Amino acid sequence: MQIGFVGLGRMGGNMVHRILRDSEHEVVAFDPSADAVSTAEGHGASGAASLEELVSKLSAPRIVWLMVPAGKITEDSITQLRPLLEAGDTIVDGGNTNWHDDQRRAGELDQVGIHYVDVGTSGGVWGLEVGYCMMVGGHQESVDRLAPILDVLAPPDGWRHFGDAGAGHFVKMVHNGVEYGLMQAYAEGFEIMHKSEFPIDLKEVSGLWNRGSVVRSWLCELAERAFEEEGNDLAGLQGYVDDSGEGRWTIVDGIDLDVPTPVITAALYARFYSRGEGDFTAKVLAALRIQFGGHAVEKTT
């Protein structure tokens, strides 16, 4: 089977590598970085210097998989691909797109006969070796056609079709919201142990918890790895935690569906505070304590 792949970063490049390493599929690969294209060619891909060249190298009906940042870059890529493709071709978005955008794009592309499939992809940099968990949305016909590629990218039994366009990214959105809460719970627990009076080795704790404990998980395995690489104090890291949007979207959809999400919301807010986005709030609190009680506070000067 032949597929075009746009976006050869940490995820996309490894996905192309996995497709070509373990199958007889053909990949035509494009990225703005010539070095990334060259790396893909080293794994057996046919490189392209533009979207036009990529499409020209694909046989109809074509499948083009986008693995680029969500938002404007994805939108621009689809806008550029649309006049290059024909009825019966398929665009696959494997990034972290908002599911509302999937529904809109699918409707627009349906008007010209182009199919649209959204694939929420989880696995990070480890997916090359262990496979990617993939959550899929789109018409059944389009998903069936893509299935041989999904079978190679996923571990055994590692992908599911959840409904029409948007369903895959909806499930992936909730997945990432849950991930926020799990990560925050681990982080808080490890800090309590780090500040305790006991000389607790956090690498040993995370390793032990993965041996029969009810909180064992891949995230806990990664915590063990992090403490081994960075040390018990994680001294080489800054406590700045970004968010890519899915946690926010999960909370908004929870509100729309009247579902309380206190854990996911608190985890998102903790990320805000890690970036200093609550600093002025803390200053106001300090100012009020001075005003109503004359309490001692720390000042910058």
Describe the structure.
- With 301 residues, the protein is α/β, with parallel strands linked by helices.
- It contains 13 helices and eight strands.
- It has helices at 10-21, 34-42, 51-56, 72-81, 99-110, 127-130, 140-153, 167-194, 202-209, 218-230, 246-256, 262-274, 279-293, and strands at residues 2-6, 26-30, 46-48, 63-66, 90-93, 115-122, 133-137, 159-161.
- α1 (10-21) links the parallel β1 and β2.
- α8 packs across α11, α8 packs across α12 (262-274) and α9 (202-209) runs antiparallel to α10 (218-230).
- The mean pLDDT is 95.
What's the layout of helices and strands?
Layout: E1 2-6, H1 10-21, E2 26-30, H2 34-42, E3 46-48, H3 51-56, E4 63-66, H4 72-81, E5 90-93, H5 99-110, E6 115-122, H6 127-130, E7 133-137, H7 140-153, E8 159-161, H8 167-194, H9 202-209, H10 218-230, H11 246-256, H12 262-274, H13 279-293
Parallel strand pairs: 1-2, 1-4, 2-3, 4-5, 5-6, 7-8
Antiparallel strand pairs: 6-7
Helix pairs in contact: 8-11, 8-12, 9-10
Query: What is the helix fraction of residues, given as a range?
Result: 40-55%
Shape: globular
Q: What's the order of the H and E elements?
A: EHEHEHEHEHEHEHEHHHHHH
Main-sheet strand order equals 3-2-1-4-5-6-7-8
Could you name the ranges where pLDDT drops below 50 across 5 or more consecutive residues? none
The major sheet is characterized as: 8 strands, mixed
User: How many beta-strand elements?
Assistant: 8
Instruction: Compute the number of helices.
Output: 13
Measured distance between first and last alpha carbons: 67 Å
Structure class: alpha/beta
What proportion strand? 5-15%
Work out the radius of gyration: 23 Å
Mean pLDDT across all residues, rounded?
95
